[in-house]
Design goal:
The complex is a heterodimer. Chain A has helices spanning about 1-10, 50-60, 75-85, 100-105, 135-145, 145-160, 165-170, 200-205, 215-220, 225-240, 255-260; strands spanning about 20-25, 30-35, 45, 65-70, 95-100, 125. Chain A is of the alpha/beta class. Chain A has two domains: about 1-125, no CATH class; about 135-270, no CATH class. In chain A, β5, α4 (about 100-105) and β6 (about 125) form a beta-alpha-beta unit. The radius of gyration of chain A is 19 Å and the shape is globular. Classes of the chains: A alpha/beta, B alpha/beta. The interface of A and B includes residues 160, 190 and 223 of A.
């Protein structure tokens, strides 16, 4: 699969201004903008890293450029949510969709391991799509807990938090310039352990109708807090209550944003 | 550290003392949290409530400066309850009788009188530590920054040997070093008595080896520690100082005295990223490059050597430290500094430093890490030390008696001040206070004091207070909190405008010459 992606990227680079993908050298691996003439043998697919915010930043900075991106299923879901929120222009984006392996899907408890390329004007799929993996068993275990046990569970988990903001910074759909987590009105600054439950539940509430279940927050968390148990349940509630599945459907707008005409969302790209 | 950082996860008991681990060493803190989730028991001995103490199985709050007493108490319980590792003591150590005699009188009840730790808690802690299959001791400056610093460290070593918790994975005596490369700086001769690799300057053979390699004559006498340099600057015996990446006018104990001493120098050079408080009084400031602008290696607290790569070129006129030193050598016509890269410098280090003998940039590339001692190119490195034998052969027990800190409280200065760090700032703030995001978290100095002490001085809620000691006074915000013991106040030392070190006592440990940052007597008044 890797060779097929490298070949495809090489070819597309002739027409595109660049392709966002992971690049590996003896100094480490990081998301990079590959451009024509670059050594695509350095393009790698591991470790899993979210690319939606990188694409958004590049599109905002280079307003006429057309970029490509190597994207997994979770990446395309995040890209869809970012398009709806005017953070990405789909007409200036080409997608190399990569189908995750069964093993990867199981590791991520991923229900949709293959990228959905239908919404995108220009996209190719590499690899063979595999079926969705079973959900995280921790979620069912958690649902059996009483209200008091749940409170204790989160209290204990969030006591480990070192306020690194890693869960927010890695999140592919967390993009606001002014973040409520840094607003002293909501979260008292300078505390370790950070305010429980404000710091964590503000983040959780802002994930409502946004979280695309990529699980990058949980992977990034140095304290090992099982954040996606919370977010999976929020996704489930949002699905049951208003029938909205973030990242699944490009045509339905983000329900909460639609009700806030003057929502403080950076609409630079919408102008 | 005798052991390596990843090993914490498999410890069965972790005893943390004098370390606010998750704030000062967050990545080590998370390893200990993982150990706890895997069933390890965690004991914290600290006068303050910290994130680690909140999740610990036991939190013992000692009076600052009484560490030898409670450590002796723990050992007294272990010996009297028959929990000592007799086989380890017999096979691997000497001087056990000295220890036994020294700790005998430190019954938990006696220790309670000295340290304030309830006798029953001390017994529990002793059993928890001694009965664990693999127990690890973690400490930091809370143990070392005392006039009894060396005694405190030896007591930790006594405890580990008494229970056979050395020379195996996930055990050991693990001091957490502060800066990313303070271990490397010590390893490579940044101490007055040794060449790179802790080779003694007083050893004629060693001296000769370096004279041959560097083609120059080298002194065989031990130089001065930082504390002594500053003292002798004040008396005029030291004429010039060259300070690199350090900010003594905020970091040193009793900075009013340190400032007077350093102003007395004929010539002061400071090499730093920013114009620090020390750089402000320098004759020459040399702009240094940051970690992101240079290559080379850092040696972490667990003796792990890691290669770094520049992300950007040095900004402005700044240069990596090695280039600055090389340019100076050139001006001074000093031979032996002709290196083309940090890689070449590492090759010389490997050639002259047995414990670094197997390191090269080539071996350390692609994210490979190695722990010293790494004696040759095919040596795998040493994640944990003292397997089978100690470097001196048998491990030596030291019988140690508790001594009082240098300064005690009285009517004028009724509270004990202890200083330390917080999550959001680094050391003297030279770097972190220039970060908007970090200042957003904590922008000014504060003193933590217990509600009872706040009531004593008629303080209601958050207010400005004046804190004074026999050496100076500062004004800062008060945070009234039961995180701290009554009778003790805490001030983070990151803030130059209300510097905790204007108050601290420069009395130092007679051997290590480390000042007593963790105990001095102060008075707090509402202003």
């Amino acid at each position: 699969m890797i060779q097929e992606i490298r070949d495809l990227v090489s070819e597309k680079l002739k027409k595109l201004d660049g392709v966002v993908a992971l690049r590996k050298t003896d100094q480490g691996t990081a998301p990079t903008l590959f451009q024509e003439g670059d050594d695509v043998s350095q393009l790698v697919l591991e470790p899993r890293y979210p690319v939606a915010k990188t694409v958004s930043k590049l599109q905002k900075r280079f307003k006429d450029a057309k970029f490509g991106v190597v994207a997994r299923g979770c990446d395309t879901r995040a890209l869809v949510e970012m398009v709806k929120r005017h953070q990405i222009d789909p007409d200036r984006l080409y997608i190399v969709g990569m189908a995750c392996s069964e093993e990867q899907a199981e590791t991520c408890y991923c229900a949709e391991p293959a990228p959905d390329l239908d919404p995108w004007p220009e996209a190719d799929l590499v690899g063979d799509p595999v079926p969705g993996a079973p959900p995280n068993p921790m979620v069912a275990e958690y649902e059996n807990l009483s209200r008091e046990e749940r409170w204790d569970f989160w209290n204990q988990q969030f006591t480990k938090c070192i306020k690194c903001y890693g869960c927010r910074d890695i999140c592919p759909v967390c993009f606001c310039d002014a973040c409520s987590l840094e607003d002293p009105l909501w979260v008292e600054p300078g505390l370790l352990v950070p305010d429980f439950p404000m710091y964590h539940l503000i983040k959780a509430m802002h994930m409502t109708t946004r979280c695309v279940a990529c699980r990058q927050c949980e992977t990034a968390c140095p304290a090992g807090i099982p954040l996606t148990v919370l977010y999976d349940l929020i996704r489930k509630d949002v699905g049951n209550l208003i029938g909205y599945i973030p990242g699944a459907d490009a045509d339905s707008g983000p329900p909460l944003s639609l009700t806030l005409a003057d929502a403080p969302i950076d609409s630079e790209l919408a102008k | 550290m005798t052991n390596s950082i990843p090993e914490f996860e498999d410890a069965k008991c972790v005893l943390i003392t004098g370390s606010n681990t998750s704030e000062a060493h967050p990545m080590i803190g998370t390893r200990i949290m993982r150990a706890k989730e895997k069933g390890a028991q965690v004991i914290v001995v600290d006068p303050r409530t910290t994130q680690m103490s909140m999740m610990a199985d036991l939190h013992l709050k000692q009076q600052p400066g009484t560490d030898v007493a409670w450590l002796n108490g723990v050992m007294q319980v272990i010996i009297s309850e028959g929990l000592a590792d007799q086989e380890f003591i017999k096979e691997r150590t000497e001087g056990y009788e000295d220890l036994e005699a020294a700790v005998e009188k430190y019954t938990p009840e006696y220790v309670e009188e000295i340290s304030g730790i309830p006798a029953e808690q001390l017994r529990q802690a002793a059993k928890m530590y001694a009965e664990a299959e693999r127990a690890s001791i973690v400490y930091a400056m809370g143990i070392t920054q005392h006039t009894s610093g060396v005694d405190n460290v030896l007591s930790c070593a006594n405890l580990a040997m008494l229970t056979g918790n050395v020379g195996r994975p996930s055990t050991g005596v693990n001091p957490l070093r502060g800066q990313n490369n303070v271990q490397g700086a010590c390893d490579l001769g940044g101490l007055p008595n040794v060449y790179p690799g802790y080779q003694s300057v007083a050893d004629p053979e060693v001296n000769h080896k370096f004279e041959e390699a560097w083609e120059t004559e080298l002194p065989d006498e031990v130089g001065l520690t930082v504390v002594e340099m500053v003292e002798l600057a004040g008396t005029g015996e030291v004429k010039a100082m060259y300070v690199m990446g350090e900010n003594p006018l905020v970091a040193d104990a009793d900075i009013n005295h340190a400032r007077e001493s350093m102003k007395n120098l004929d010539f002061l050079v400071v090499q730093d990223l920013f114009l620090s408080e020390t750089a402000e009084i320098a004759d020459v400031v040399l702009p240094a490059a940051s970690y992101a602008e240079k290559s080379g290696t850092f040696t972490a607290t667990d003796r792990r050597v890691q290669l770094v790569h520049p992300a950007i070129d040095p900004v402005g006129e700044s240069k990596p430290d090695w280039e600055i030193i090389q340019l100076l050598a050139e001006k001074m016509d000093a031979p032996g500094f002709d290196f083309a890269s940090p890689e070449e410098i590492m090759d010389e280090i490997a050639a002259l430093t047995p414990i670094y003998g197997g390191f090269s940039h080539k071996r350390l590339s692609n994210g490979n890490v190695l722990h010293w001692p790494c004696l040759s190119e095919d040596h795998p490195g040493t994640p944990y030390l003292h397997k089978g034998t100690f470097s001196r052969g048998l491990g030596k027990f030291h019988g140690i008696d508790f001594t009082e800190p240098a300064e005690s409280t009285d009517e004028t200065y009724p509270l004990i001040l202890t200083t330390g760090r917080i999550m959001f700032h680094f050391h003297t703030g030279t770097m972190s206070r220039r970060s908007e995001k970090l200042n957003q978290e904590v922008s000014e100095a504060y003193v933590e004091m217990h509600p009872k002490d706040a009531e004593q001085i008629g303080l209601n809620g958050e207010k400005k207070v004046k804190v004074s000691s026999r050496r100076g006074e500062i004004k800062l915000a008060a945070r009234v909190t039961d995180r701290i013991k009554p009778g003790v106040v805490f001030i983070p030392f990151h803030f130059a405008e209300a510097a905790a070190n204007a108050l601290t006592n420069s009395a130092f440990d007679p051997i290590a010459k480390i000042p007593e940052y963790k105990v001095c007597a102060v008075r707090v008044e509402a202003v």
